[in-house]
User: Fold this.
Amino acid sequence: MSGEARLEILTRINRIGAREQEPLERRPVRPSTRPRAQIVEQFAEYAAEYRANVRRLAAAEVPGALRDLLLARGSERVAVPQDLPAGWLPGGFAVTRDEPGVTDLTAVQTVVTGAALAVAETGTVVLDHGPGQGRRALTLVPDHHVCVLREDQVVDNVPEAVARLRGSVLSGRPLTWISGPSATSDIELSRVEGVHGPRVLDILLVREG
Amino acid sequence: MSAGGIKPARPFQQAARVTLANPQMRRNLRHATTTIREKRLRAVAELPDWEALRDEGAALKDHVMAHLADALLDLEAAVQARGGRVHWARDAAEARGIVADIAAAHGAREVIKVKSISTDEIELNAALAERGIHAIETDLAELIVQLAEDRPSHILVPAIHRNRAEIRDLFRRKLGAELLTDEPKQLAEAARLYLREKFLTTRVAVSGANFAVAESGTVCVVESEGNGRMCVTMPGVLVSVMGIEKVLPTWQDMAVFLRLLPRSSTAERMNPYTSFWSGVTPGDGPQEFHLVLLDNGRTDVLADEVGRQTLRCIRCSACLNVCPVYERVGGHAYGSVYPGPIGAILTPQLLHLEDRNANTLPWASSLCGACYDACPVKINIPEVLLYLRGKITEEKPLSAEAIAFKTAAWVMSEPHRFEGAIKLARSGQGPLVKNGAIHALPGMLGGWTEARDLPAFPPQTFREWWRGRPAPQPRETDGQAQTSEGELLAPQRGDRGPA
Ligand code: SF4
Assistant:
């Protein structure tokens, strides 16, 4: 159907023969030289500026912190990806292991996932929907997203993050970059949180070692 | 249905007269542009190598333009390898047909849409309506514009000309929403309730694309509210329409634009949500994906050595927010889905410089250069404006007005000469001024004043004044209708103009 259009557009472009003067030199991505502590600190600060609730804690404290969050929000229906590390979850809650086509996400109040990495420069969490992160709808439909992140997953800046995500992208995985909860400024530029995505984003940032 | 398209119904000078008579729009716009402008400076200052980044963005885009056919073929192959389908559309009608056919093939009566200027460019909603398919805009501002049967007035905040009370009334009337107050929070909640059901039940979604990566077939949508995530994730079928200039060669190139775009557009370090997907992901999201590659005049722009840089544009809207003309006349005056400085150069070029109304747009500028300074990909908008003015006056039959345009192009082609000429005019303007306006100019400039009165030249040139002016105050001093379009080209007489 569009074979003709394709040929014509490509012909138009090739007729132009716009060739560049100098070859492009891309700046190489250099590993950050900033101290780790500073990078992690900046991520926590910037994510909080985007109204994500950031809590820094030791690995052993994750189940307790999760329990507090679920109790505070009165969440009774919790969903997690199939492969979420079992050690993170507190006892005493009915937790659904997500199954596409089976789980009714509209009935889920809180979802708990891991992440692929996080970016200090922007306060962003990135999911590549690999291990511990689930399909995209899982972290989209429920109102409350708790993201568990290790400090060593925080990278300094956007170019580093993009470089690290190359493998995921080339293997065909989708990515979701999340900076705070869903927000709009469409009405008189007043910021309102929680339009269509999760209204609340909690980040549990797990200390190294 | 929000009107779309890129063909202005009137010449800019006429359209501007109408919008200048709308004080609410001007107040809202001034508030928006001032706020974003100041925030942007802070966001940009945070990155130490901003200037290098701009150069990199410009160079990358130029590189893509020089190898566009290769990049598009790579993109096509990669999307297909990931189970997506790629369509090519020479013009708007072809693109509309492709999208409508896909929706109709699925028996869709409704499609959900995430804000996309390229689908507005091709007037998709009207075409779908003709086939009995209702397109639902899911971006809050776009929804407001659509329900009000209005047009967007800004790329980034399309409903900025509407106040909260109007929006409350609109939602009550059109969505049957029970709204006790006009708090933005409540209004957003009403939209959430209405749209949530649509997200969960509609089978076909239509999006635009901010970028697409050739080597991996990855499409990118940048947004804030989560409606974009909903549209690209929940329905079974996704159709994305993108201009052919949006392609980037390698995944790593995204790094440059993920830094340039949010800081330039919403003045944030990063927008709340960015989605990337490559073709179809088994078990996750739409299982049918179509990418429509849209030419619609772009290859003509590409063929023009000066105009080509227009295709670097990443639609951030920074140039709108710094433009003194835009701030006064608002987006509607440009008569196209592309308003402001970028619209003044893109719209006429997409129409091959053959549309009489669009051909007035290159004069919708004071040539102050603020747009060039703000543009994250360093499009030299003043240069393109002048170039287009020259081409239009040369190629079209010359009216008296056009002769003056031509003169203006020559006078303004170089800042020193321009400022020199203005100073000359200033010193010699005495006898021509009546009631603060110049009614006739001697010699070559005469044609210009046949069609309009110029305000008297201010004691400073516009450029001198704009550069040195303090940030605008929130007070509203000019709510009255302005009728002289010459006003656009110079600061207000009297109040906050040059002292
Ligand atoms: S021309 Fe430049 S500043 Fe204007 S919208 Fe495009 S990229 Fe942004």
About this structure: Residues 402-467, 469-499 of chain B have pLDDT under 50 and may be disordered. Residues B 264, 313-319, 342, 374-377, 379 surround iron/sulfur cluster (CB under 6 Å). The first strand of chain B starts at residue 85 and ends at 89. Chain B touches chain A through 93 residues (CB under 8 Å).
